[in-house]
Each structure stands twice: as structure tokens, then as C-alpha cells.
Amino acid sequence: MATEESTVEKVEAGAAHEESLAPTETETAHSGPDRIAAPAAMRLAAGQLAEMLNCAPGSVSALKAAGDGWLADVEVVELERVPDTASVMASYRVRLDEQGHLMEYARMRRYGRGQIDR
């Protein structure tokens, strides 16, 4: 019985988390019927990717409106190391639909946290 209760609690907590990620009516953009605004798209891209990968997102480095939603580049820490500059980061391309639901993601590159683009 205890495992059934804890499973129910986890499911309810997951549903509550998804609701907290959902954009509010004031965050919807005016350009389309139900398209969410850019700030909400950034939060949803980072949050949903973090759930999928079970890791904390570092930042959203790019966001672009696509015809059917949004494209975002989200940076995440894939391997934490000491010192921080030795950690392995990854950049993921995330596609959201107009309502902000994650449709697909793909890792674009991996790099050291201390690495500078040239």
C-alpha cells in the first residue's frame, strides 16, 4: 500500500509541476490565436527539457519563433566536475508547439564549461 500511495503522490506532484509550467492567459502572444509569448516559451523549453533529461538547465541561449511554435537552444550541465570549469555542458535544440508543449529535442553539441566560442 505504501508504494501505491507514494506513486500517486509522485503523479500528482508531476501534474502540479506541469500546471505551474503552463503559460497564463496574459502570457499568450497577440500574433496568433493561442501562441504563447517569448518569455513563457523560454521557461517552458528549459523546464520541459530539464524534466526529460532529469537535470537542471543552465540557460536558454537562443529563442526563435517558428511558423508552428518556437525553437529554443537550451544549455544544460551533462557532467558536473570539480572545478566547475571542467564540467561538460551540452546545447539542445528544443521545438515547442504554439501552446508551449515540447514536440522534440536534439543535442546539438557538447563542450567544456570553460570553453569559449571562437
TrEMBL record:
Quick one: where's region Disordered? 1-34
Q: Where is the composition biased (Basic and acidic residues)?
A: 7-20
Question: At the top level of its lineage, which domain of life is listed?
Answer: Bacteria
What the entry lists under InterPro entries is as follows: Gas-vesicle_GvpO (IPR008634)
What is the protein name stated in its UniProt record?
Gas vesicle protein
From which source organism is this entry?
Streptomyces siderophoricus
